[in-house]
Amino acid sequence: MLTLNNVPIKRKLMLISLVTSCVALLLACVCFVTYEQITFRKFMVRDLSVKAAMVGSNSSAALSFNDPTSAQDTLKFLSAEPHIVAACIYDAEGNIFATYLRGHNKGNGFPFPQAQTDTQYFGKQDLSLFRRIQLAGETIGTVFLQSDLEEMQARLQNYVLIACSVMLASILAALVLSAKLQRYISRPILHLAATANAVSAEKNYSLRATKQGEDELGLLIDGFNHMLSQIQEQDSALQQARDHLERRVQERTAELKESEALFRAMNDSSPLGVYVTDPEGSGIYTNRLCQEIVGMGPEEILGNGWTRTIHTEDRDRVLADWLRFTQEKTSFDCTFRFLHRDGAVIWTSVKAGTIRNSDSLIGFVGTVEDITQKKKAEAELEAAHKYLLETSRQAGMAEVATAVLHNVGNVLNSVNVSVSLMTDGIRKSKLPGLTKAVGLMHEQSTNLGDFLTHDAKGKQLPDYLKKLAEHLGTEQAGMLQELSSLSKNIEHIKDIVSMQQAYARVSGVAESIVPAELVDDALRMNAGALTRHDVQVIREYSELPKILVEKHKVLQILVNLISNAKYAMEEANPPVKQLVMRMGMNGNNHFKIAVIDNGVGISAENLTRIFAHGFTTKKTGHGFGLHSSALAAKEMGGTLHVHSEGIGKGASFTLELPLKLGEEAHG
Q: For residue 604, what is the enclosing H or E element?
């Protein structure tokens, strides 16, 4: 399809005028025809409603007296309406009472619809309308009329013919006018184009275009002429600059020789080794320090000679990275070892980048840094770090053990109470009374029947034994209840010890667990202290799958956070102490466990150092708990962070860990 970009400007202007006129006129015609269609449809509905009302009024008597013949005669007047296709009167039950069909429809078995209430709808070829027939405010039937749409279609055809005629006349008028008026735009543009072609062909920048008006085209021609004046001046200046450049090239050549000597002197005194290669990565220059670090002379280090002293354990990796760098031409940053002839191992950090001249690569330049002492310091720091981690872990497990001992102590208190109650119950037991009664019966064993029926004491003995049996039964139930409580408390102690042993055994081992169960274990380890201080625990758990974590590290963190929250609320002593345990996804393939309290809060200056080693706000604190928790979170690839609005506004500690599914870990 030919685009407007390639059409001559005369035709382009005429075409734009024609298309604009046609589109505007077409839209106007479409709107007019659409409006007429909508208006005529409303007129048809109104007209048909009037006819339906007349039919209903004239047939109300026939419906009242059940006279279908009279109703049929009423419908015959519709034959004067050429567009009425069918009509029907229904009785109050919706049964057909009388019908009418236009002449050519009588033998077609017209399907009259079921009676409907005051509705109308347009079909593809007709309009159907239902109206109720009422007498004295009561509906006694329904009239149905169906009209064809021939009149509306005829009007539509007339409108289309009129619109086409108007469109054709408008196009002819627009064509004539645009052919005459486009010259006022195209003539100056064509003149400007001819001048531009002449300047381009002859390289004659003294030519000028003739201005034909003060409109935008006149401004364009002024700008074009001004541009030619500038080009003419620049062409003259360019020739002068060319002559001057030749002189400068000679001067710069001499300066470059001096700069090269200065460059070599500076590199030889640089604290870093410096090397330069060609585009293929072959060495062409090294400074003195680079040669000392690599352990080679100034000649043997060039080319690929430097690779011969790379440590055998690093050579394949370094050469692969260097080859990739020379091919991709991005950047090179590698740490590896050189092995000198005397056996000395030198750790180095080697970096490189590209040297470009505009878009072309002319080589690579890089630095070599001796980091042997830095590596030794890092090894010593790593050893110290491991020692600190172990110390912090032991301190954290001490927190867990303290919580376990608190819980065991609370349960032992309950055990002691149960034992005291049982001892007191046995001491006050009525069992000696039973012994006396049995002894009395044994003394009267020879005449027991006479004793029980005639003796004053014997008559009281059955009633006494009954009451004694009831009392002993009550004592037995109480003893059994205390024994059951004692058994549960002992089982609780066993569970606490078993849980502590289980977490102690899995140190350093990742296991697949349900997060909610792990949080509940931490709460159970602090249950005694939380209950003793009336702390209300609120659990807000989102559903999470089984995850793979180091249980003892997560437990260490949670026990420490819950214990700190308890102390914070104890110090603040709010009316209601609330501890919220919130768990869910964090949106970045991590899950989070938040411990939120309404305790004393944390000041802004302490938020930045709350996880520092040795920092604590508790009088008896040692500053290991939060520091070791933060280190444990980092070891597991997560983070531990804190938020507080300030003093007296509580605090929120959030543990975020990577979501590693247990099933994937075992797959």
A: helix 604-607
User: Among the three residues 315, 339, 370, which one is the final residue of a domain in this structure?
Assistant: 370
402 and 483 together in one domain: yes
pLDDT at position 19: 80
Domain with residue 598: its CATH number is 3.30.565.10
Asked if residue 264 is part of any domain, the answer here is no
Q: In sequence order, which residues have a C-beta less than 8 Å from that of residue 547 and are 6 or more positions away?
A: 512, 513, 515, 591, 657, 659, 660, 661, 662
- Examine the domain organization and report whether 654 and 518 are in the same domain: yes
Q: Is 405 exposed, middle or buried (0-12, 13-18, 19+ CB in 10 A)?
A: middle
Structural domain span for residue 248: 183-253
CATH number for position 22: 3.30.450.20
Q: What total of structural domains would you count in the chain?
A: 5
Query: Is position 295 within any domain?
Result: yes
**Strand ranges for 188-302 from DSSP E:** 273-277, 283-286
Give the torsion through C-alpha atoms of 376, 378, 384, 389, to 10 deg.
-150
452 vs 459: CA distance, rounded Å: 5
pLDDT digit string, tens, across residues 394-417: 555 555 555 555 555 555 665 666
Please name the amino acid found at residue 192. L
Name the domain boundary from 495, 526, 546.
495
Buried b (16+ CB within 10 A) or exposed e, 349-364: bbebebeeeeeeeebb
- Angle separating helix axes 216-268 and 183-202, nearest 10 degrees: 40
Does residue 396 form part of some domain? yes
Domain assignment of residue 260, yes or no: no
Residues 350 and 260 sit within 8 Å (Cβ to Cβ)? no
Neighbours of 419 (CB within 10 A): 12
Which residue would you say has higher pLDDT here, 10 or 139? 139
Q: How many CA atoms lie within 13 A of 332 on its CB side?
A: 27
> Residue type for 96, please?
I
Give the SS3 label for residue 510.
strand
Compute, in degrees rounded to 10, the torsion defined by CA atoms 554, 557, 563, 569: -110
Instruction: Give, rounded to a whole angstrom, the gap between the first and last alpha carbons of the chain.
Output: 60
Longest dimension (CA), the chain: 161
Residue 35 has pLDDT above 50, yes or no: yes
476: its two tokens: 């037995």
Closest C-alpha among 546, 538, 563 to residue 663: 546
Based on the number of CB atoms within 10 Å of its own CB, is 511 exposed (0-12), middle (13-18) or buried (19 or more)?
middle
Q: Does 506 have pLDDT greater than 50? A: no
- Are 199 and 237 found together in one domain? yes
Four-CA torsion 137, 138, 140, 144, nearest 10 degrees: 60
- Euclidean distance between CA atoms 185 and 643, whole angstroms: 71
